Amino acid sequence: MITSRVDVTHVQIEHLKTLVTGPVQTSESALESHGHDESAWPSVSPSVVVYANSTEEVSAVLKYCSQEVIPVVPFGAGTSLEGHILPVFGGISLDVTNMNKLLEIKADDLMVRVQTGMHRMELNQRLSSYGIFFSVDPGADATLGGMASTGAAGTTTVRYGSMRDNVLALTAVLADGTIINVGRGTRKLSAGYDLTRLLVGSEGTLAVITELTLQVYGIPEKMAAAVVRFPNLAQGVEAASLIVRSGINIARGEFLDATCIRNVNLHDGLSLAEAPTLLFEFHGSASGVAEEAEAVREIVTEFGGSDFEWTTNEEERRKLWQARHNAHWAGIAANPGFRSISTDAAVPLSKLAEAVKIADEAWSASSFNHAILGHVADGNFHCFVLTDPKKPGELEEIRKVSHEITSKIIAMGGTCTGEHGIGVGKIDDLVEETGAEAVAVMRAIKAALDPVGILNPGKIFR
Amino acid sequence: MITSRVDVTHVQIEHLKTLVTGPVQTSESALESHGHDESAWPSVSPSVVVYANSTEEVSAVLKYCSQEVIPVVPFGAGTSLEGHILPVFGGISLDVTNMNKLLEIKADDLMVRVQTGMHRMELNQRLSSYGIFFSVDPGADATLGGMASTGAAGTTTVRYGSMRDNVLALTAVLADGTIINVGRGTRKLSAGYDLTRLLVGSEGTLAVITELTLQVYGIPEKMAAAVVRFPNLAQGVEAASLIVRSGINIARGEFLDATCIRNVNLHDGLSLAEAPTLLFEFHGSASGVAEEAEAVREIVTEFGGSDFEWTTNEEERRKLWQARHNAHWAGIAANPGFRSISTDAAVPLSKLAEAVKIADEAWSASSFNHAILGHVADGNFHCFVLTDPKKPGELEEIRKVSHEITSKIIAMGGTCTGEHGIGVGKIDDLVEETGAEAVAVMRAIKAALDPVGILNPGKIFR
Description:
The structure is a homodimer.
Chain A: H1 10-19, E1 24-25, H2 28-33, E2 48-51, H3 55-68, E3 72-75, E4 92-95, E5 102-106, E6 111-115, H4 120-127, E7 132-133, H5 144-149, H6 157-160, H7 163-166, E8 167-173, E9 179-183, H8 195-199, E10 208-215, E11 217-218, E12 222-229, H9 233-245, E13 252-256, H10 258-268, E14 277-284, H11 286-302, E15 306-311, H12 314-325, H13 327-333, E16 339-342, E17 345-346, H14 352-365, E18 370-375, E19 380-387, H15 393-411, H16 427-434, H17 436-449
Parallel strand pairs in A: 2-4, 3-4
Antiparallel strand pairs in A: 1-2, 5-6, 6-10, 7-11, 8-9, 8-10, 12-14, 12-15, 13-14, 13-18, 16-19, 17-19, 18-19
Helix pairs in contact in A: 9-11, 9-14, 10-12, 10-13, 14-15, 16-17
């Protein structure tokens, strides 16, 4: 097992150069750019950055690293929020961003096959002329392989599911270099253990994903967006919960507090009223979206929602959701010099208002500025907490507050992470949530698939 | 490892009686009733039948069996179609049907918690007054634990998903008796490896499931059913594929050939025209279902569909779908003295017509009578093949034809099982489909979790 930092030797680096056709880099800038993600965890540089250009090259690198006991951290867009790509034990940052081909579009089967390094936005640009789209949309323009590895979700998960639901099959490379093909390009599958869903969300600790078969959807005939303001957080959250429970088939249901609205107004040139706000989207036929919008209007009005506006204007709709996707960066842009921590809790819908209140009160009582936003239709919300990178001691204090909130969330039946994953920051929370026995099973699977422990050590488990 | 039949000794049986509060049976009738499922594979009796009444009792039994190297086969309704509950290496049939409590109804969260032995129909009877329902509906009134273990699906999977999508969390007992709680009662989860979905569909080979948290849905405001006939199989299948690809939000889309229609007419007292037939269901608002039915009518008419009829009459709708659920038993009832094999293939939608044609031609060229039906909206279909139990040699011949068809299905990108699982019958097909490397990963996981190999040996792997 790897228990301390591994520095790759000159001889090993020379050998790695024979295994890949892409660059093998040790420059300061390459190491630095592969040493941090969008989280606020301190940077850690790898020993070397290796660019692989094919599944076979990934296989050759992993086989060699298993022999030499060199840690390997797969690297995509570097947009994870829990330190997934930090090479905390040194070794190799295995950059797969040049494996970015769209391999196959099967529009008739509502499926596409992509290489791991393709970005989600490029995929959707390429698909739009076929009348289909890939639904999972985290804020960042992440790579699809990274999204699969972290089990990403987004604003449309309430309707179309997360990566766990939309990766049908994949090719991956095990620690010893073995290439496996798991899952199937079919809408149903019951053939043996569900290795696809085991690898999705395994955060690069079990295998390196190199290709994905993804489910896509027909672009709906009509899409409409709606905005509504609330006098306070609680009423907005309660309204959102009831809308989902009532079975209205919304495609998106997002909450932003007044601070978030102010930030996105500044960042994206909008002029939304600075109040707790719900954003909705409806997908369907013209009459269907009108019917759904009306049903939502009725419920939000009951909960004190005002200024309900809805639109089928495509440009307005796009602008609104782009602003929502930019909320994280809008928050950073509004606070120059600061970095942010994004917490990530999910609870049963009936507990959402209570959970948001607990988090809001805890952060309000702390010395940190915060904002709250969330995929409320899924019972999932984030606190956006600001920290001054010149005061590294703040991180410890933020962790403490965050852990106190998380303990309460877990006690009420919630989870420490709805979509960001465990990474380096939630290792203890995972044990608290699911129990030492279940974590021991995860460890046993890890040991069976990666006995030397080279794959992304220090993530999920200590 | 267990390589030959294990007969439980008298001393062991006496000890087992001290571990459970339920019966421990060795009578001929108990052994016989636990020695076969709904498949045509030959019966194999266990040494002893043990009824467990709690998770703790399951734990005590498994701990003892690991020590004593006694095979354990979990037993629910006994309705599986691939020999899952056959104790091919003897040992214990662990009957969990007395663990059948509905533990919790969380209507506001659209979740319920049940014990493993609860039957799906009883669950829905109990839920109906809350305005919610559990969606997964295989033909049989299976236990929910059995449905989870085999990764069951049904007629509503196109809209609401299979067991893989609707089991949110579960309690299970590992081979050594360790009790684990995995997953979470939240709509989103990204906390470590997805052990829930690893155990769902693992066919009792990794753990014994004792409790389940299930996602449920609000009963739609309006439900409508539709029936349409086609001049031939191919046109019906093509129409169904196009309907799904066009994004019409159907809740069910089923195909039955003329023989199936004749069988269900006889069995359930219907008078449907004996022709290749598609059945649809629509869930939504009154105007929504009307709109969808009209969209479907337009497409089926293009493909030669005739006599399109739709109804929102609740009794007619129920009667139609009950008949569809009885199709398997209707086929057996129509052929007294025969048993049946139900094949189970799924392909990408664009290949469905071709795959059904291959299967239809192969069975037509054989000496066996067959019928074809399927969840065509999911690209999943079954051939219902009759065999005379007095001629056991027929099974070998049926396997041969079935394997030839399966090889072609796999070659066109399909799977050997969309919903029935691997069991004892498709062990070689699994290797052909996903490759020896992926199966080796499954075996490594099995070895890590059940090192002695007591859990349902002889299933999924040889």
